[in-house]
Structures are given as structure tokens and as C-alpha cells.
Automatic annotation (TrEMBL):
UniProt xrefs under InterPro entries: Aminotrans_V_dom, PyrdxlP-dep_Trfase, PyrdxlP-dep_Trfase_major, PyrdxlP-dep_Trfase_small, SP_NH2Trfase/AEP_transaminase
Residue ranges constituting the Aminotransferase class V domain according to the UniProt record: 42-328
Family listed: Belongs to the class-V pyridoxal-phosphate-dependent aminotransferase family.
UniProt-recorded Gene Ontology molecular function terms: transaminase activity
UniProt key word Transferase: yes
Cofactors that this protein relies on: pyridoxal 5'-phosphate
Highest taxon of source: Bacteria
Keyword annotations: Aminotransferase, Pyridoxal phosphate, Transferase
Name of protein: Alanine--glyoxylate aminotransferase family protein
Organism: Microbacterium binotii
Length: 408
């Protein structure tokens, strides 16, 4: 006996830096019936999903698949599989997730070198090249969009720099993919990973990844270890990947034509990830990016019209999230609670040097829409006024409406 009721979450509009409200059809896809691991339908669906994500990433990479787990599962798989203990890794850090990449590389026993820029800024290609020349890394690990600062690191020129210096180029595009341009092949990426819970409009729990031929060669050159088999290698510093779950060599064999058993693919997440990509491609890559750009511009105009100061270098902001300084005298957490309890709207708090200083408001995936932007601005205006801030009546909604109507 139990008196626990069936799950019944409150209605929420998730307008933070992620996770965001999923597209309804993604949730529907995830409730489709399960099939067995080697059912022809399953392998066909895996192949379809690979093909969809090749288009999402703008790549011809055969090695395009899903790592099961949240975005950091993809990050960890890429890093532990691509670097050997003692390899030098360069991580330019412009927010919290750069620190995460450095930490994961450190755990993988890399010799990690970081360069840092102030939060709210990005790196110039020259600064990254200078560090590459100095450090001579095997791998450059660079976040594209860091939600902790809202900044979007330009990647267009980085691939050519890495190629010139024989460095593998990996990017964490979790926060940006779908809402901002990403061109895996044209930009010379060797590895890129993402998650569903930002612009792709799904729940967290699946990490799309794409790997260049060069990256696959590196992964394939690692010594193999699996239950009962251990390839001969240097016994002091064995070369095998220090994770079974995140060993991309094994995961590639599972997704590839050999279909060697590894983990049991997370079937419902596969359905969800497939639907996220399908929706994106039906709408069109360019159209989805333009929708994020429009919603982001409208939200930016709206918060500015409410008199809020925007954090960071706006010229390098991701389209899908904005950080605003919490006005003097307003208790940031109490205001966020009022947004949630009175309006059912979630906006984000902040980490590290920005903790308690800014709110982060996202417009991503399913929620990159006019109604969600206007509703959030109307609620924010009411909450600010209640906390004694003199906000212009209707100003935020009007400014955002003007953007949507093409008047601003
Ligand atoms: C949100 C975000 C993540 C999230 O990782 P999870 O494991 O899914 O929580 C990773 N990287 C970046 C850059 C992000 O913005």
C-alpha cells in the first residue's frame, strides 16, 4: 500500500539558462513503446538519429552518435577517450564550464594548462594561438557558449589555428547548439558535444557527439581493454581509456556496423534525441537560429526597457540567454521565488563571481517564442515593482513586441 500519488509536476515555464521546457512532441516521442536492443527497429532508429545529427552538426563525420547521460557524459567521453595520461591540454576559460573541462582533463591525468579571461568576455583567436604556441597541447578544449556568463566564443578561426599546429580541437557546444551557428566541418572541429536541455528543446539525459576521422584515429590507436582482454602495452602507464562507460572506441563499435554490445542504449532518450533533431531540421537550421536570435533580441530589448543593466560584452552574447544585474535593494532570491510561485516562471540564478549579482533569463528551444518572452517580461515587471523598483509601466512588453513586429 502506498498513498503516493502519480507524478504530477506543477505547470512551469522554464525561462532560465537550462533546462528549459521540452517540445511537447519530444515528450510524446519519449513515451513510445520500447523495443529490444538489437531489434531491427532499434538499429534503424539509431542509424536515423546519426544521420539527423550529422545535419544538426553540419558534418559528414561517420562517427556522429549519442553518449547516454547528461551533457557532461559527452564531455567526459570526449576528453578521456582523446587524451592519454600526461598529454598536454589547453583550456581557455571564460566561465564555469571552462573550469569543468579543465577539471575533467585533470582527472584524466592530462597536464592541463588554462588561460583565463574576465567573466563576460571571450578570447581573440590570436590569444588562443599564442597559448597554443607556448603550451604545445595535444588537445584544445574550448566551450562555445558558456551559460554561466552568457558569452559565445567565436570558433570560426580556431580550427585552422589548431590544424596549423597539429592540435586536436574539441568544443562543448551544449548551451549553444541549435540556437547559434555551429559548423563542425567548416570550422575544423575534431570533436564536439552537446546536450538536449538547452536550444535543442529536450530533457537532459542524452549527449550528441561528433568526431572527425582524425579524432577517431586517435581513439582507435588506444590500447584495448575489456573483460578478459588486455592488449599488451607499457605496464607503467597503460594506454587504455580509463573508463568503460565513456570509452568512445567501444561506443563507436556499438553504434557502428559491428554493433558490439556495450551498454544498453537508453531507448526513450534515443527517441527524444531523435525528435529534437527532427524538429530542428523540419523547421530548418537557419530558421531555428533566426528564431532564437529574434527571441533573444526581444528579451534583451525588454529587460533594457525595464531599466535593467545587462552583464557582459553584449556583442558576444549567445542569442539564447541574457544576464541582468539584480537592481540595488532587490533581494534576488525572493524575487526569483515570486516569479516561480506567483507566475510559474523559472529564471536562473548565477555562480561564482556572479553569484547574487545577476539573474539569467533564457529563450531557448521550445521557449524561444513571442508569448513566452512577453509573459516573462510582464511578470518580471510586476515582481520588480513589488520590490520598489520604479519600472516604466508596460515598457518591457512593448519594447519586446516592437522587436517581434520588426519595429526595432
Ligand atoms: C548547461 C551546460 C552543460 C550542462 O551539463 P549537464 O551535464 O547536462 O548538466 C554543459 N556545458 C555547458 C557549456 C553548458 O552550458
Amino acid at each position: 500500500m502506498t498513498d503516493t500519488l502519480p507524478i504530477d509536476p506543477p505547470a512551469r515555464l522554464l525561462m532560465g539558462p537550462g533546462p528549459i521546457s521540452a517540445y511537447p512532441s519530444v515528450l510524446r516521442a519519449m513515451s513510445a513503446p520500447l523495443v529490444g536492443q538489437y531489434d531491427p527497429f532499434m538499429t534503424h532508429t539509431m542509424n536515423e538519429t546519426q544521420e539527423l545529427y550529422r545535419q544538426v552538426w553540419a558534418t559528414e563525420n561517420e562517427a556522429t552518435l549519442l553518449v547516454d547521460g547528461t551533457s557532461r557524459a559527452g564531455i567526459e567521453a570526449a576528453i578521456v577517450s582523446l587524451i592519454r595520461p600526461g598529454d598536454r591540454v589547453l583550456v581557455p576559460v571564460f566561465g564555469r564550464f571552462g573550469h569543468l573541462l579543465a577539471e575533467i582533463a585533470e582527472r584524466a591525468l592530462a597536464e592541463v594548462h588554462t588561460i583565463e579571461t574576465e567573466w563576460g568576455q571571450v578570447f581573440t583567436p590570436a590569444a588562443i594561438e599564442e597559448a597554443i604556441v607556448r603550451v604545445k597541447p595535444t588537445l584544445l578544449a574550448l566551450v562555445q557558449g558558456d551559460t554561466s556568463t552568457t558569452m559565445l566564443q567565436p570558433l570560426e578561426e580556431i580550427g585552422a589555428i589548431c590544424q596549423r599546429h597539429g592540435v586536436l580541437f574539441y568544443s562543448d557546444a551544449t548551451a549553444s547548439l541549435g540556437g547559434n551557428a555551429f559548423e563542425a566541418d567548416a570550422w575544423g572541429l575534431d570533436a564536439a558535444t552537446a546536450g538536449l536541455q538547452k536550444c535543442l528543446g529536450g530533457p537532459s539525459g542524452s549527449a550528441p557527439i561528433t568526431l572527425s576521422e582524425r579524432a577517431v584515429e586517435v581513439i582507435r590507436s588506444r590500447k584495448r581493454i575489456e573483460a578478459g582482454i588486455r592488449e599488451a602495452g607499457d605496464e607503467d602507464a597503460p594506454d587504455f581509456v580509463r573508463s568503460n562507460y565513456f570509452d568512445l572506441g567501444m561506443i563507436l563499435d556499438y553504434w557502428g556496423p559491428r554493433r558490439l554490445n556495450h551498454h544498453t542504449e537508453a531507448t526513450s532518450m534515443l527517441y527524444g534525441a531523435r525528435e529534437c533533431a527532427r524538429l530542428l531540421l523540419i523547421e530548418g537550421r537557419g530558421a531555428v537560429i533566426a528564431r532564437h536570435e529574434l527571441a533573444g533580441r526581444a528579451m534583451l530589448a525588454g529587460v533594457e526597457a525595464l531599466g535593467l543593466a545587462v552583464f557582459g560584452d553584449v556583442a558576444h552574447k549567445m542569442s539564447n540567454v541574457v544576464a541582468v544585474y539584480i537592481p540595488e535593494g532587490v533581494p534576488g532570491d525572493a524575487a526569483r521565488t515570486a516569479m516561480l510561485e506567483d507566475f510559474g516562471i523559472e529564471i536562473g540564478t548565477s555562480f561564482g563571481p556572479l553569484h547574487g549579482k545577476v539573474w539569467r533569463i533564457g529563450t531557448m528551444g521550445y521557449n524561444a517564442r513571442k508569448d513566452t518572452v512577453l509573459t516573462t517580461l510582464a511578470a518580471l515587471e510586476a515582481v520588480l515593482r513589488r520590490h520598489g523598483v520604479a519600472v516604466p509601466a508596460g515598457g518591457g512588453v512593448e519594447a519586446a513586441s516592437d522587436v517581434f513586429a520588426g519595429r526595432a
